[in-house]
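chain below, 310 aa
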Amino acid sequence: MFSPESGTGFSAAAPARARRIAVCNQKGGVGKTTTSVNLAAALARRGGRVLLVDLDPQAHATLGLGVDRTKLGASVYEALNEAQRVEEALLRDRAENLDLLPGAIDLAAAEVELVDAEDRENRLGRALGLVDREYRFVVIDCAPSLGILTLNGLVAADSVLVPVQAEYYALEGISRLLETINRVRRALNPRLEVEGVLLTMYSTRLTLARQVAEEVRGFFGEQVFETVIPRSVRLAEAPSFGRPIFEYDGQSAGAQAYAALAAELLARRRMRPDGTQEIRTTGTRSGGEGAGEQEHSPRLSVPATEGEEG
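prediction:
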């Protein structure tokens, strides 16, 4: 198991540019934005600068860092339309070592405006290319849909982290997301890989949560992070105070879980060989009704790695 203290943080050598991680699931209510904000904050606390990109028209990641989305001079919307405005839109030091490229309500219009735009799927990547050498990681909070905005996130990203709620219908819609990832990889972004699948809103007191966790691990295998994110009142409260969980309650189970997730992600990245890995979209689901039937399930050649509420 990974502890919050696992590892020593980033390696001394700075990368040529930031590693970009898109946090994506078109199913709402899975802890996508909570994970984006707190994973970004956890990585930033380990010593390297991190950029959080709010690509969700609801702009909840922006609100979660205490920014009024209605009073922005510029946002990711302007950066999508004019890449050079990305510097103008950046909000520095919203938390320790953490910058924000904020979202705005205007992003809803971008879904329509970009449909016929030239090079529409590369807008975010072009903007990030102007600034991301400042950072070790860029974490992209994608929209809860598979439209143009999410496509921009996937084309800009090196990898995708998929949060999955430890509740009924946990796997609903994942097949479509994985097919989208593979289409993007084949046509637009050959380096794109799955960073991992993260179980969220997990309660050790619920039999259903344990059953769902077992099913998800059986379905995705080594791609599932060992770390699970607990169902936590403190995690739910933190955004209303405009602070990541580490600033709101650093001793809470949620803070410990996201610190452990950052440690595990860094350990996996050190262990993973360089180069693009295969993403297969069919696999056999074991056990239960329909065993032996082909299901849409990604399989990566990922090396094996060696909370509770509150």
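The first strand starts at residue 19 and ends at 23. Residues 19-270+280-299 form a domain with the Rossmann fold fold (CATH 3.40.50.300).
thats it, cya
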